[in-house]
Design goal:
Blueprint (H helix, E strand, L loop, with lengths): L1 H11 L2 H16 L4 E2 H8 L3 H13 L3 E4 L2 E4 L1 H34 L2 E7 L5 E8 L14 E3 L4 H7 L4 H10 L13 H14 L2 E4 L6 E9 L5 E10 H4 L3 H18 L4
Antiparallel strand pairs: 1-3, 2-3, 4-5, 4-9, 5-6, 7-8, 8-9
Helix pairs in contact: 5-10, 7-8
Length: about 260
């Protein structure tokens, strides 16, 4: 008895069964009307008994629904389809952003980062990076967090917020000097954020760390929502004489990536 059950489980999990499930769902997906078991058997060149077992399993999971001896897709299939569509959108967006980061790194010769703000916090987290080819370069790891006030990416993100949200952030801010020249004065920080809003980019020199210059602009999606901050991070010694050039580069690439994501 147990041997029989195990043999049945092996058949159900066989590569052939997986292929039949996929083809079965494809047939139902392509049909605007419910499809009978006999018609499914004919289209898939598969015995009705084999298909019936597969259909029962799919029905138990909500992927198909029986109706008067015929079958159609169930809510589980539509839920999976929506999830796959969303996953594809995220992957495509990630690829487009990554392509832009590579372009910007090649053009600038510097490390390029993607930073996102924490939903419930006052920090930015680096979620992707393309390292500079220079031996001397800014070193950071994916997952590293930096405070908004001391980073170009953080200030660029703050510049997209309402004045009320910025005021709320500055009121609760307990700023620390991360480098000798870190700006910790609230009024000065408010002014810097205002400048970033007007210019469309933020730039910091020796703020989060001594000897590091950051230049950032935000990326937006098709709905106009901020995806994150695109950041060029470079040693100050190399960036000092090209601050305007780096700003133009990051603004142009952030706009190009945003357009590729559907932002107009």
């Amino acid at each position: 008895m147990n041997d029989t059950v195990q043999e049945g489980e092996r058949r159900a999990a066989s590569p052939q069964s997986v292929t039949r499930v996929i083809r079965l769902l494809e047939v139902l997906c392509a049909s605007s009307e419910p499809v009978s078991l006999a018609d499914l058997s004919r289209r898939l060149a598969t015995p009705k008994s084999s298909l019936a077992a597969l259909l029962r399993g799919l029905a138990d999971e909500g992927f198909v629904t029986g109706l008067d001896g015929a079958w159609r897709l169930g809510p589980g299939a539509f839920g999976l389809g929506s999830a796959l569509t969303e996953a594809r959108r995220r992957l495509q967006s990630s690829d487009l952003i990554r392509d832009g980061m590579r372009r910007l790194s090649r053009a600038s010769g510097e490390t390029v980062l993607l930073g996102v703000g924490e939903p419930q916090g006052d920090s930015m987290t680096y979620v992707d990076l393309v390292e500079s080819s220079h031996v001397v370069r800014y070193l950071v790891s994916i997952g590293d967090r930096r405070p908004f006030y001391a980073t170009a990416g953080g200030r660029a993100l703050l510049a997209t917020c309402s004045p009320e949200a910025v005021d709320s952030y500055l009121k609760r801010l307990v700023a620390q000097r991360l480098a000798p020249t870190t700006q910790v004065d609230r009024a000065a920080l408010r002014a810097e954020i205002g400048i970033a809003r007007e210019q469309g980019f933020a730039q910091t020199v020796d703020q989060a760390a001594e000897g590091v210059t950051g230049t950032a602009a935000v990326i937006r999606d098709a709905a106009g929502q901020v995806v994150g901050a695109l950041v060029i991070a470079a040693p100050t010694a190399r960036a000092r004489d090209r601050l305007s050039e780096l700003a133009q580069m990051v603004v142009a690439e952030a706009a190009l990536i945003s357009r590729s994501l559907g932002f107009r």
